[in-house]
Amino acid sequence: GCSPITPPGQGTGDVPALTPVTLGVGFIPNVQFAPFYVGIDQGFFAAEGLAINLDYGFENDYLKLVGTNQLQFMVGSGDQVVLGRAQGLPVRYIMAWYTRYPVVIFAKKDAGIVQPADLAGKRIGIPGPFGASYVALRGILEAAGLEEQDVHLESIGFTQAAAVSEGLVDAAVDYGVNGPVILAQAGIETTQIALDDYLQIPSNGLISNDQTLEQHPELARRLVRATLRSIQYTLEHPDEAFEIALKFVPEAGGENRAANRAVFDAVLAYWQRRPGTQPGATRLEDWQAAVAFMQRIGLVDSPVPAEELFTNEFVVE
Amino acid sequence: MNSSSNERAVEWPPPSSGVGQPLLVVDGVGKSFTEGPTPIRALQTVSLQVQPGEIVCLLGPSGSGKSTLLRIVGGLIRPDRGRVWFDGQPVQEPHPSMGFIFQSTNLMPWRTVLDNVLLPVEVQKGRVEARDREQAQELLALVGLDGFSHLYPRQLSGGMAQRVVLARTLLHGARLLLMDEPFGALDALTRERMNLELLRIHRLQAKTILMVTHSIAEAVFLADRVLVMSERPGRIVAQLPVDLPRPRTIDMMAGEAFGRLTLQVRRYIGEVGELD
Amino acid sequence: MNSSSNERAVEWPPPSSGVGQPLLVVDGVGKSFTEGPTPIRALQTVSLQVQPGEIVCLLGPSGSGKSTLLRIVGGLIRPDRGRVWFDGQPVQEPHPSMGFIFQSTNLMPWRTVLDNVLLPVEVQKGRVEARDREQAQELLALVGLDGFSHLYPRQLSGGMAQRVVLARTLLHGARLLLMDEPFGALDALTRERMNLELLRIHRLQAKTILMVTHSIAEAVFLADRVLVMSERPGRIVAQLPVDLPRPRTIDMMAGEAFGRLTLQVRRYIGEVGELD
Amino acid sequence: MTFEAKVKTQTDRPRGEGTSAPGHSAGWLLQHLEYLLVPVVLGLGLFVWDRLVVWQGYPPFILPAPAVVFRKFLLTLQDGTLVRHGLVTLLEVLLGLALGLSLAFVLGYWLGKHRGAERLLSPYIVASQSVPIVAIAPLLVIWFGSGLLSKVLVCGLITFFPTLVSTMVGIRNVDRDLYDLMRSLRASRWQIFRLLELPAALPIIFGGLKLSVILAVVGAVVGEFSGADVGLGFLINLARGVLDTPLMFVAVIALILLAQLLYLGVSLLESYCLRWQRAA
Amino acid sequence: MTFEAKVKTQTDRPRGEGTSAPGHSAGWLLQHLEYLLVPVVLGLGLFVWDRLVVWQGYPPFILPAPAVVFRKFLLTLQDGTLVRHGLVTLLEVLLGLALGLSLAFVLGYWLGKHRGAERLLSPYIVASQSVPIVAIAPLLVIWFGSGLLSKVLVCGLITFFPTLVSTMVGIRNVDRDLYDLMRSLRASRWQIFRLLELPAALPIIFGGLKLSVILAVVGAVVGEFSGADVGLGFLINLARGVLDTPLMFVAVIALILLAQLLYLGVSLLESYCLRWQRAA
Ligand SMILES: Nc1ncnc2c1ncn2[C@@H]1O[C@H](COP(=O)(O)OP(=O)(O)OP(=O)(O)O)[C@@H](O)[C@H]1O
Ligand SMILES: Nc1ncnc2c1ncn2[C@@H]1O[C@H](COP(=O)(O)OP(=O)(O)OP(=O)(O)O)[C@@H](O)[C@H]1O
Ligand SMILES: [Mg+2]
Ligand SMILES: [Mg+2]
Q: Of chain A's two ends, which shows fewer C-beta atoms within 10 Å, N or C?
């Protein structure tokens, strides 16, 4: 039931050798998935013999599908892998895409919230005490030595921008390219506290499962290679990449072009290669830190061997 | 048949013919039903008066507008023209002193027999006292339904249901009873008993009664005056004062006067029938 | 009152008393209703036979089980004991050759008068032809409802609705008609007309009729045999063969034989009334 | 004052006629008021919406002004976006209704006839209705894929119950005297259903249908929310993603219009089928 | 063969009694079967579930075995988690019902009496029912905060419609003859309502109530999904977030039980109020 997104103007019928690969991506069609659109459009995936289907749905559901090998690959964040492994899901992180954890706490500029300690006693909006938002919140609070009860948490669903702009909360937890950009578009200046400045947790990347990696390592290698190339191309040609993304998400163009370009520009920062690191690779100490942190905040109750969570073997040439 | 002759017919009874002040005056009432595709003219022009304490029986062919007339008198539907006066007041809506027996037995299926009988009390007093309950039981015994008070209407036979309605109306305590074939589903014997009971109550409580019936014998037996209606559109084509003495007894039915009166009504009705 | 005397009473009519082969045999039928808190004994033990072409009228006090008996004969409810035979076959469920007129006028409110009359045809043939429609219109004219065929039941008077039911049953084409007070809501004149029509149809189409009525005169005028039922629990306490010649005419009602028979039935009923 | 005098004085002003006439004209007025009021109320609503935006100073990502939404509406109507997504949602709704209603009729009829069966099955039916769809969406996706089928199933599931219950209640409400009549005519089960039970239960069934068609729209949206790449529900999600609040409102309005259309359809069918209720 | 002979032969086997008896005992059987079948069907369901897990080899995060879920159930019951979240959801449901039903009765009664009013208002009511909650969540949060109130409102909104429609249909279904009776007794509007309309419409209203109580549970969950930190819907979200599928199942089962309880309550009330239907 997944409809393949094929590059415009390029038929798939004349390249019979392509291996179909369904990739589960969380969220919805968006310029934030530009690298994949670029890869499809520029034929980077086809060059590796892959025909990519992008399937849109919930990250949670995909993790289960990948864990049971009903799906081979997905895009998801590192903490999900920790959770999955803790539950016995044989999922494994094979390539980092985001180099920074994308969740931030943002507030209106005049609220004067610029560092974790400023959050004490404040009303903080959060979709709910679970998921990536919760991880980020606890990480940031921890950086200032704060506990959950030192702030007033309010579960406001996905209404962060509205809640902050109307002053219902002092600050809210959201993706850095979401709420803050919305407010910026509306001419409201914000300050942001990024988790990544205090704690490095492996963020969005490609996730697969042990069975696939064992039986089809070549497939994973090709996918990783094509994806890395796509990311690289996107970073190097942002304007072109944005135009390509608009071909896939036409709704982001037209009147919404400016807003989406702002999102796109903001998200590029999260993909920039960190100096001194191999693109796509993750560090063992980051995984260990992530596991330890998640244990501290009670998201996992058993120690998970950090080595099982990831592999860099497909990114290392 | 021209309309002026009809107009003449309805002039009876003359407005001042009453013995005293009439309890009920129906003055040139007419009614058509216009909801359907073709309007149905139910009542032409009807005028009549009923004195306090009088029993008037209304006879007439099926569909001649008897029920419609009773509904208008009771204030349930508005006439197209003409007016109804009760006790010197124009009738615009149901009056608390009128009790109604409808042609179809309308018991509430979710109430027991006893509760159905008690309905008027509940509506009028707002609550039911032990005394009312007793009285209702007495009335039920009177209509021969002792021991059935806890059944639901569906468990009754047609005649039994009709008698429950009678008991309900009698509990009501109205001064004017408007009865639309109240004894239609009863066998001859039960019907006679009910007739006698009605007369007894009429005598004791000075009730005024306007009643539709299809039984000529019943009309003559009960009434002070029998009115005969024409075919649709209905108007009153004849009246017959019944001069039998009161209190009336079953024996009278075998008498010569009774036979003569019955025959006379028969003839009126026959004439009506042959008119069209 | 002991039960053995009752048993004696129901032995009549003896199984072999029929002139030919009876069309309908009711054999020791009894029925109680047990759904309520207190069981109601409706029918004690009833046996009767009806010959083909015969008209049998059933008289009895209100609540004596006449409707119940008719329902059992029609196969609508099961008796507790005893059995019913129609045309030599045991009756377990409604038979296509029996037509039913229920005590309450059961017209479908969403069908026009014409469509209500056509219902039996629609059920039995699956579709309605132009010829059926014509026949229905003729029957409606017969019962005096010319021009009312496109009204809905709610727009009819009580007596008109009852006549629609009559037309519906006559269209049915049944051999045995089971009629529960079919003329109860009609005025005397219309009733007479309907009686005559029924007799005419009976003569022409050789119908057999078992009919409940509360009018003694009607029973004597129509019937070959009048059966009288006791108070509840019902049983047949008397039968009276009516030896008036056929075809019957209205004049006969004034005759001496008619008066004698009527009186006789009256006496039977009176006795029943005085029994308890 | 004698009675005669009273008659006289009151006859002078024809009150009987007078009170009867206003009744008629009031009814007339109400009937026409209705058509008059629809645009008035609608206009008032739009006005309040507009003022709300201005006075409360809501930024467009919270509540865009009606004019903005209207422009977007025309735009998406022109470029076919609205039609494409709308048609898919309509298809899901119609298939879901076909599935849910046919099941509901059959089962509702059966449960209406057998109270025992109702007591037996109702726990499971209630369970099927109270499980949050979002919670079983993963299972639906695993079992039926993320395409049309899973949305149709969600739609069917959600439309099923109201029509089931109303069919059940309607069948139980059929006049018993008429059952006797049909039985005495030896009507077959099918005839009893077609000629008696269906028309008798129809006024009540239509109530359930009205609920079902609206829930069908809700169901399609819920289904699309849990994974889809086309449809009005998807469009809402998409619009959120591309920060296009006016587009989101357009999708919502399209959904409302779809629901209105279905409701109107059922209402028209109802007033056609129940025209006998208006006579007399 | 003569008739007499036929009577004779057929009398020998008492068929009339024979066919009557099975009818009774079949009814008896069915009635008791029902109570017998409830645990049987439930057991069967659990068995199939268990086998499914074993045969398909589903890991616990896809479909946990019944035993695992049961253990989790006991655990959360003991540590108070279930009770705490369940009570909040129950509170939301009850308040939502109180709000939705009281509005629905009043408005439904009014619309039932005035067809013109129905035509006038139905577009807005339909609109209110077909707007996806997620789309207006920001507005709800801004206007009513993220606490209990917004959930109660969602609940009230969702329970409102079924009862509204069934009240409307029920009121229109009241026997007109009985209206005449009440009018002839000069019953007040309140008395007509209490003594006639309510009891007459009750069989139909109960159908709507059954829908409403179940939708109330769904509404509470939907409300909690769009922002909450307590309640069974929140618990589902939480469990999903930490991939604790057994906990999710426990929350879902608790919701089902809550719905069953409410449904059972309405059913009992119904069979008490409509006991007259069973007589005769
Ligand atoms: N609600 C209605 N709508 C349309 N026509 C009606 C309505 N009620 C009665 N009528 C018509 O008015 C006429 C008189 O009806 P009504 O019920 O008054 O007759 P009736 O004298 O009581 O007859 P019956 O003795 O048969 O009861 C009939 O022709 C009937 O069709
Ligand atoms: N469905 C039922 N449930 C319980 N009791 C019933 C039912 N139907 C009839 N009865 C009882 O059976 C007895 C006979 O009823 P039936 O209707 O046969 O009388 P009937 O002779 O037709 O009377 P009527 O002349 O008043 O119509 C009555 O006492 C009645 O209460
Ligand atoms: Mg009448
Ligand atoms: Mg009877």
A: C
